[in-house]
Amino acid sequence: MSGSQESGAARADDAEVVPVPDGVRRRRLGRPAPSGDAQVIELARAADQVRPAPPDMPLLRRRREELRAHIHEGKLDAVRRQHSLGKLTARERLALLLDDDSFTEIEPYRRHQATGPGLAGNRPHTDGVVAGSGTIDGRRVFVYAQDFTLFGGSLGEAHAAKIHKVLDLAVANGAPVIGLNDSGGARIQEGVLALNGYGGIFRRQVEASGVIPQISVILGPCAGGAAYSPALADFTFMVRDTARMYLTGPDVVEAVSGQRVTHEELGGADVHGSASGVATVVHDDEESCLADVRYLVSLLPSNYLDPPPATAPTNAADDYRPRLADLVPVEPNQPYDMRDVFAEVADDGEFFELHEGWARNVLCALARIDGRVVGLVGNQPVVFAGVLDGPASQKAARFVRFCDAFGIPLVSLVDVPGFLPGVEQERGGIIRQGAQLLHAYCEATVPRIQVILRKAYGGAYIVMDSRSIGCDLSLAWPTNQIAVMGAEGAVNVLYRRDLAAAPDPEALRAKLVAEYTEEYLNPQYAAERGLVDDIIDPAETRAAVARGLAMLRDKRKPAPGRKHGNLPI
What we know:
Elements: H1 3-6, E1 10-12, E2 15-17, H2 57-73, H3 76-84, H4 90-97, E3 104-106, E4 129-136, E5 139-146, H5 157-173, E6 177-183, H6 192-208, E7 214-223, H7 228-232, E8 235-239, E9 244-246, H8 250-257, H9 263-267, H10 269-276, E10 281-283, H11 286-299, H12 323-327, H13 338-345, E11 351-354, E12 362-369, E13 372-379, H14 390-405, E14 410-416, H15 423-427, H16 430-443, E15 448-457, H17 458-463, E16 473-476, E17 481-483, H18 487-494, H19 496-501, H20 505-520, H21 525-528, E18 534-535, H22 541-551
Parallel strand pairs: 5-6, 6-7, 7-8, 7-9, 8-10, 13-14, 14-15, 15-16, 15-17, 16-18
Antiparallel strand pairs: 1-2, 3-4, 4-5, 11-12, 12-13
């Protein structure tokens, strides 16, 4: 017998079993058994404990309603001050923007956790931003509206977190996001946490770019780093007199440069609508501004996978517009308003023009043709004769890229004498800026139709979506002139010596211009060489474009296998 067996233990399957000594009985786990004179103290039963009576449900519901009413009402003195500035409150703006009773608010009870100066005892609910989702004409959108009545709408950690959530939800649900900006900027007391909050917004906007439409509406101050959010959006609306946007305010500008400037002169709506190009649309009041935002949403798809919302067909394929033949003069140097051509081509004569006050020598607009949304790009002969310059190229390039990202077909109405010449243009980077438009058209995979009304000269002809860079259908009027340059310029270059030696240079020039025009600028020249698909009667323009769009409706062209192109910016 082994030693372990001798000691009274037995081993079975490598597990040691210890026998229970005689006279010892097992006890249940739990309360220890009393021994000797030990006193047993019984714990008080739960039923015997004294507790305060819980509030009843009606009281809890009443408290909830009172708190929500207080949150919605806001600080009355601050609301009155907001109205005195000619501005609506955040909730009033959302009521105008969204369908009635469609708004679902998220995190209305959110409050900051900061302890900086003036914050410890001042923790209002919402933390200065009202966020959530609603509908516009029954279509889902996500929104946030900064509340200037609380902390001047300044952004802190909690404030930013709510915007982050709205952006995340918008992407996850494939719905447009609309930001109503009215903020003094970063909340200074929260320091780097506020800056981190802005960074989170910008990163999400970039990730959402080309995935969902992003609309920014400036209804008050938007200063410092906050200004980058509207710049990253697809469309930016501003209201005159109340909206202002800049990186550094007038005080800093004066301290650094000595130049005195007002808020309006530095970053008002008209400045960004006509000079910088940051503002897409400018309005005189908040009501018309928000109504236009609603109209814009009606023209946009919810995301890059969904088609733009269509309306009933209008039989555009059989719609002839004789007025077009009278709108555009035959003489190539006579001006006309390209907006009139847009109105004849679009359903019901309606189109939504973007950047109306900036780079006015090119027009960009969203419209419908036969009930379907299209992007219209056109040279504007009444401004600089419709030439392309740096700002016009950038304006059109950004619009073309937006349309391509969201599956909106492009129709380009061409009447361009070339790029604007000059030392200032060359030094300002017109080559690089023109290349941006060229790049945008070349990479676009949506259906693309070009209509040449009159002039199409030089590199500007190529850049305005010519056949050589990939347009699907090129149409031309009988007045088209496609050439390296106009007849007079070509004659002056080609026959310079002959003209200098001629006894009557003007007579010879007139003869040579007529011959050059007949030989190289005749309407059939490009069509005979396969660079124009058809020469159409101007009255057929709307019908021909509608038929072309129907033909191209199922176009599928995958993008090249790469991470992304390198836009010449």
